[in-house]
Amino acid sequence: MIRLPKVYAEIMASTTPYVLLYGGRLGGKSKGTxxxxxxxxxxxxxxxxxxxxxxxxSMADSSYAEFESALEDFGPYGxxxxxxxxxLRIEREGDSGTIYFIGYGGSNTSRTKSIKTKHKIKTxxxxxxxxxxxxxxxxxxxxxxxxxxxxxxxVFVLGNPPPIRSHWFNE
Length: 171
Description:
With 171 residues, the protein is α/β, with parallel strands linked by helices.
């Protein structure tokens, strides 16, 4: 059985396209958005999900692992997905959706310009957003993803507020 904190149930019932989730580490943001995006894919076949963070190298142990755990929570429905390691992605059976894991920002801000998905994007999860150097990096990534947006897209911006008040994420 899948149990979500009340805030995620409210988000799931909402039609708000952009959702900012911030708070301390281990707050469940990654797992909660993984569950929401998998549920969305199950209800909307032939759609894709983008999971992005500044450091691609750490995704296997973080974002990807959270999705793997969330798929286990879905029981038999989770068995519709196959986990791939190179490049990191999770494919739904029957070519009916893919979860892509990509890096964005960092030293190579053009990484998202060439993103191509098989289907229209239903969900975007931007993790550890406070690690981006500037809001411009975020805006560029969103502009790249927007070209592949489908209907009723959800964009989750996740972050841990930096201690420096003047950091762009705190604005």
